[in-house]
Design a protein that fits this description.
Length: 267
């Protein structure tokens, strides 16, 4: 008698559990299908990308099921299509909101290559590509964006938008890393640098405000050399233009020279 009652209780329990599972599954199906729909897509706009640009890159469209939105895939889409992206966060907020937050990287270096000008971040990622050759009077018309230091080198191995630039000579990375670290705390002076030439790492030179050409020689101890060049320039009168020679262990020398920019371009 007890065995029969126990069996009945088990059957009742199993039936109740199955019924609950079915009801729960049906509830989740209909809530996902008709209730958890993406109605709001919150995007923090920034200096580089608009709301519409970020929305398009995300691949999310209003009306899709909230939990069908793959946050990791969405973040990957944004990183690939919007190269200035430094960090991106995608969150699903029930019942009907997706939040996208993007932090963009700032350009620091620029490189001329194959008729294009590439903007590079402090982490050496290619952020942008600007067409130079192909436009009328390109040489006279084009000037790099404000705050970008043009970097001349012949050791570029790989340069693709959205990827890290690669050099044949690994010493170039060390050189650029020194520049990045040195820039912190010296932003004002660095904003006046037009170009650093490292085509020959034994004859490194810098164009400062198209007024001074600073010849450093070998790029070892470049940080101290650049800081010293800033001090020298600050001591010179505002009208001064010329060449600063810091290529050996002797005291740095300055030579007045008119049309320094044209001299530098011709070299």
């Amino acid at each position: 008698m007890k065995i029969r009652k126990t069996g009945t209780k088990i059957k009742t329990f199993l039936f109740a559990a199955l019924t609950l599972a079915v009801v729960t599954a049906v509830f989740l199906f209909f809530t996902n299908k008709y209730f958890f729909k993406v109605k709001n897509i919150e995007i923090d706009e920034n200096e580089k990308y608009t709301y519409d640009e970020i929305l398009k890159a995300s691949g999310i469209t209003p009306g899709v099921e909230l939990y069908a939105v793959d946050a990791k895939q969405t973040e990957k889409n944004i990183r690939e299509l919007l190269p200035y992206t430094k960090t991106v966060s995608v969150k699903r907020i029930p019942p009907s909101t997706v939040s996208i937050n993007i932090e963009t990287a700032a350009g620091l270096f620029g490189i001329n290559l194959g008729g294009d000008y590439y903007i590079i971040s402090d982490k050496f990622k290619i952020l942008d590509k600007i067409k130079v050759i192909g436009r009328e009077n390109a040489e006279l018309e084009f000037s790099p964006p404000e705050g970008i230091i043009t970097f001349d080198t012949d050791t570029i191995k790989k340069c693709y938008l959205g990827e890290k630039i690669e050099f044949f000579d690994n010493d170039i990375y060390n050189f650029l890393e020194e520049i990045v670290l040195l820039r912190e705390g010296n932003e004002k002076a660095f904003s006046r640098i037009n170009c650093i030439d490292v085509k020959n790492k034994f004859k490194v030179s810098m164009n400062y405000e198209n007024k001074f050409i600073v010849n450093f020689g070998i790029f070892e101890n470049i940080s101290s050399k650049i800081l010293n060049s800033f001090e020298i320039i600050n001591r010179l009168p505002d009208y001064a233009e010329g060449i600063i020679d810091m290529t050996d262990d002797k005291a740095a020398s300055f030579t007045y020279e008119e049309n320094v920019f044209m001299l530098y371009k011709s070299d």
